[in-house]
Amino acid sequence: MVRVSGAWTLPHFAAIERSMQPVRTALPALARLDLDGLSALDTAGAGLLSVLLGPERLRSMLDALPDLAPERRALLETVGCAVHDIFAHPPPQSYALGFIGLLARIGTAVEAIWQQTRLLFGFVGLTLETLARNLLRPQRWRMAALVTQIEQTTLDALPIVSLLSLMVGAVIAFLGATVLKDYGASVFTVDLVSFAFLREFGVLLAAILLAGRTASAFTAQIGAMQAHEEIDAIRTLGLDPIEVLVLPRVLALVLGLPMLTFVAMLAGMLGGALVCVLAIGIPPAMFLSLFHADTPLRYFWVGMSKAPVLAFLIAIIGCLEGFKVTGSAESVGERTTSSVVQAIFVVILVDALAALFFMEMGW
Amino acid sequence: MSATPVAPVSAPVAAPVIAVQDLTTRFGTQLVHEHLDLDVPRGAILGVVGGSGTGKSVLLRTIIGLRRPDAGRIQLLGEDVYAASTVQRVAVERRIGVLFQDGALFSSMTVADNICVPLLEHTALGARDARRLATLKIALAGLPQDARDKYPSELSGGMRKRAALARALALDPEILFLDEPTSGLDPITAAGFDRLLRTLRDALGLTVYMNTHDLDSIHTVCDRVAVLADRRVLVAADLATVERFDHPWVQDYFRGPRGRIAGAAYADVVQET
Q1: What is the ipTM of this complex?
Q2: What is the pLDDT of residue B157?
Q3: H helices within chain A, ranges in order?
Q4: Are residues A194 and A269 in the same domain?
Q5: Minimal Cα–Cα distance from A71 to chain B, Å?
Q6: What is the DSSP letter of A328?
Q7: Closest partner CB to B204 (pick from A39, A42, A90)
């Protein structure tokens, strides 16, 4: 005889479980169940009872109780079925912890980087192939989309890019003035600003801003479309999402970043010039003539040549991350973060490699 | 035979567990509810029907305390929802369970962790016991066990709904609010959902408030139907009374092609039993 009494409810869960421990092993195989003393029962209590007796035994015990109130029987049977499911399909063991777990996580991360790199190169190839296919067919060029993208990514970014470059130019001029004054070489501040902005900072600042501002926008736009199955709709309408969505964005950045770079160079030089004129006492005419005399034109081309490459990479990363969105709104956020981080990382990496290359070439 | 006989919990008792009095809701100049009254007795399974845009979801949100009404009073389990102190409100909130239309599972947590949230917040259970109870609720809601450690984004719409039901049922609430519970479910799953609601109501004395369009649910589980139209509750009574109610929308709803088919199907079932 198994006699169950008292309130088997959620507030008494722990107490009931403690009192179950001693009888758990001593249960007879076939016993009668006595539920007369049971004052309250909820799903938690019914669950404990099913686990204690085992769902099959509980069912046979319930069959031997014809006088049980029907709603109690229904609850015990429903919960018994649920517990039976749990016993029949034990959940898989969770992943290992400790040293093995650490190794597993490192392995997973390395594999993810490898897959991501492969994916990126694949996507670059796909975009270039689509570009090549459409290049000779002007009727398929999407001029309206291209112009809209240039407006959003380049024209709208002009104020922020010029303001930021102006301030960085001023800061560099101040730094130069402070260091060079001790050697009586303050005039070389002009060279510092012009070399820095033509070769590196003009393109780098514009590219980093674009990576933050536009790569994220591309990912969010395409990601939201992916989440609402719009990309699938584009495919079923017989259109190519690469051609419709990616090409206008990539081309807009490839055309737009050189323009932004040019503006950033001018703004940076202007910031430097302002500091030279106001704080160091180099007159504007002297600034211009020093700039003209000391700075070779190829510095401009060194800086400018990096712009289309960086623009292409930023746009590709932004679009690719957008296509990787899966369903949920959370995934759009995750991918957007990832696209900005990747884009800034790639911009700085490529710029560093390019600096090394140009230095070795003596350009 | 029983030493302490259990009161038949499904019988309605005098005091309603949900009482809406003279409710007015407006969005800007648009009046959604005007002088709306609704009482739900304990143990009832109430289906709230109404055309799209009649404010079913707004009414539900107002009753559970998420949207302050522009006028009127809401009483939930005897407490005035918008006049009660924070302590009283939390006490009421842990006695209700809510299933939102898209589940509203926390997307950064697994299904099991989602169900553990109310268990850990409102009971003295340890993490291990909470997880074991969560496992039971998952099985009760009809989810396979391998869904336990998945994130909501990895589940189908129907599975998300069942996981959300498991979370709403975590604390064995006295009132369960459901917003379109069977929409987007296949008929077999929806029928299982209805059956589970009925079992829980019978066993635990649960009161269910359900916004629905599903004529099958209305015929199989609801013992009361409230019709929302013309900015108020036109009628709240048992299905037979509501079906005879003389109002064009009600007649269209129950006498339209879908309503007639569902009605005829369940009339046969009733005759057989």
Answers
A1: 0.70
A2: 80
A3: 13-24, 43-53, 55-63, 70-88, 98-135, 143-153, 158-181, 189-195, 202-210, 216-227, 230-236, 241, 247-275, 284-294, 297-323, 329-361
A4: yes
A5: 4
A6: S
A7: A42
- Average pLDDT for A183-209: 92
Choose from A32, A71, A337 for mutation: most chain B CBs within 10 A: A71
Higher-scoring residue by pLDDT: B261, A260:
A260
**From A11, which residue of chain B is nearest by alpha-carbon distance?**
B123
On the question of pLDDT at A151 being above 90, the answer is: yes
pLDDT value of residue A164 = 95
Instruction: Give the Å distances, CA to CA, from B122 to B126, B134, B175.
Output: 11, 14, 16
A88, A123, A151: which is the final residue of a domain?
A88
In tens, the pLDDT along B104-142 reads 888 888 999 999 988 888 888 888 888 888 888 888 888
Ranges of residues in chain B with a pLDDT under 50 are 1-13
Helices A297-323, A98-135: inter-axial angle, 10-degree rounding: 110
Q: Which helix (H) or strand (E) holds B210?
A: strand B207-211
Q: What are phi and psi of A147, to 5 degrees?
A: -65, -40
Enumerate domains of chain B plus CATH numbers: 16-95+216-273 (3.40.50.300)
CB A193, CB A269: distance < 8 Å: yes
Q: B6: which DSSP letter? A: P
Residue whose entry in the numeric block shows the structure tokens 């369009």: B213
Q: By residue range, what is the domain housing residue A47?
A: 2-88
Q: How confident is the model at residue A94 (pLDDT cuts 50, 70, 90)?
A: low
What integer pLDDT is reported at residue B106 of this predicted model?
Answer: 86
* A331 at interface of B, judged by CB pairs closer than 8 A: yes
pLDDT at A96 over 80: no
Q: How many domains does chain A have?
A: 2
pLDDT value, residue B43 = 87
What span, in angstroms and rounded, lies between the C-alpha atoms of B87 and B85?
A: 5
A100 in a structural domain: no
**What distance in Å separates residue B107's CA from the closest CA in chain A?**
7
Does residue A109 belong to any structural domain of this protein?
A: no
Whether residues A270 and A348 fall in one domain:
yes
pLDDT, residue A95, reads: 60
Tokens at B250, concatenated: 């009600």
Quick one: which of B179, B153, B267, B158 has its CA closest to B220?
B267
Higher pLDDT, B75 or A86: B75
**Domain-embedded: residue A125:** no
Taking contacts as CB-CB distances below 8 angstroms, the residues of chain B near A78 are 140, 196, 199, 203
Separation in Å, CA of B68 to nearest CA in chain A: 28
Residue A329 has pLDDT above 80, yes or no: no
Higher pLDDT among residues A77 and A213, named by residue: A213
Which residues on neighbouring strands pair with residue B40, listed in sequence order?
Answer: B18
Residue A299 located in a structural domain: yes
